[in-house]
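agent> call fold_tool(seq_1)
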Amino acid sequence: MEKEINGVRELKEKKLVGYRVVCKDGTEYAKEIPKAAIVLEQRKSEIKQLVEPVKLIGAFKAKETSEEYDGYWVCFEVHKFEDIPEEMVGLQIPSQKVAVLDFNGHRSKIFNVYTHLHEWINENGYKRLPEKWTLEIYSEWSESENKVDLCDPIE
């Protein structure tokens, strides 16, 4: 497992199309998110206006702000919303400043890596904004090894 802080970045607005995963029991996410990602990958050709069809994006709010935004979104980025496929949803993420950690390893380890990112944010004088969108931008998604940028919102 490799992890490296990539610094601070300004993310432009993103329009995402995919599946929203909501679990009553938080432990279910580890099982349900990969299932949603597999189905999304199989249906990728149905999504119009794809930006980068190889980059899967996960989005969530670390601090629940409303029932409407509860859960985890498994998506692809699109240039604009057009004919969103049945059973899928659109999600618009506003521009925001993020601290980025590059992670290489099994996705089951991602949750633990956030501690390292949060420590770096504090040590460097930034403030986390858990009510904004955290993004996980995958360059590779697989059952074993993943390459992902963990983007935690800050001010």
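agent> call fold_tool(seq_2)
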Amino acid sequence: MITDVFTTRESQVRSYSRSWPVVFDRAVGSTMYDEDGNGYLDFFAGAGALNYGHNNPRLKKVLIDYLADDRVMHSLDMFTTARRDFLETFDALILKPRNLDYKVVFPGPGGTNAVEAALKLARKVTGRTGVINFTNAFHGMTLGALAVTGNALKRGGAGVPLVHTTPMPYDGYLEGGADFAYLERLLGDSGSGLDKPAAVIVESVQGEGGINAARAEWLRGLSELCTRHGVLLILDDVQMGCGRTGGFFSFEEAGIVPDMVCLSKSISGYGLPMALTLIRPELDIWAPGEHNGTFRGISPAFATAAEAIRLYWSDDALERSTIARGETVRARFAAIAARYPERSLVVKGRGLARGLQFADGDLAGRVCAEAFTRGLLMETSGPEGEVMKILPALTITDEELDRGLAIIDESVAAVLG
């Protein structure tokens, strides 16, 4: 295994390769293989970008055929058959069955682009600058998205003041606190010092923040508060969308309709760069070209995205299996927590976004390291890395899921004794 070029030429900002110091070469389904042929069960799934597994054969065929037929690769926002097919499929199988009416903005290749577009448009529509965000939120690494992110390490890399945002407590952050009493009072009191914000941005489940799942009633309360005060609600579904929590959108369970929705990661279905910002039609006040980018229309991603939607969202089979498998994980994690009552382990998450919270980041990190030696990839999350986090592919087999959970069981035992 030769890694010299990575240490001599690649920036030290790299992170995942420090936890998994092997050179990967191939990947199929829920397994990644290093260059020596060793297999690793993947409970990371590209940080949620591979909900349908590595090199999904149906999606791979669509991609190969697209390339072989000399179809359009790069098109900015020109009309293409691939773009049309995606929009028609997304409308017919995702939006209309959920009674959602959104215009689609293609803001650029990644989730942070989707968030930046939403923040920018919210400020343009309202004429206001402030944005309410939440404790332990993560929304991206560009300056606007970073300003509404909570993590101190990531914020510290900005190099400039991150302004025009006000953090509020996420669901469960204040023990026993009334959900929105403080924010409601600030918004309604002309002497509070809080200028009326343009928007509130929130995740239904905070992935990087520690697998913190907001209750449906909390999300409904937030939506109602925004409506009462004329504040736009932006739902960041970059990591938790595309079926990760069960429904295609993570907010479906709450029965809310956000003003804007940010999607990326698994929207292409194949791990190709793609992002969407969904906006209510009356908010579509952009001037032509006012928000643009060279890579806002990566056509092969349109092709795999449309096929993924047809393949997995023409019925509710994937949604039901994700919820059932998520319950399997919850039960197994609860059994682990019960085995170590003195450790006060906390089971967290929804669907197939699950976590086990330890007392500190050292313990969670050691569990992940033990799992890696046993052939399982998973990461930590939370402000101190105290949560062992899993995001297996939604298409994982029952055997693979059971095998991975057994490795986690062994790894926890190795660390906690």
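agent> summarizing second result for user.
The chain has two domains: 4-56+317-416, 62-312. Residues 4-56+317-416 form a domain with the Aspartate Aminotransferase, domain 1 fold (CATH 3.90.1150.10).
agent> awaiting next instruction.
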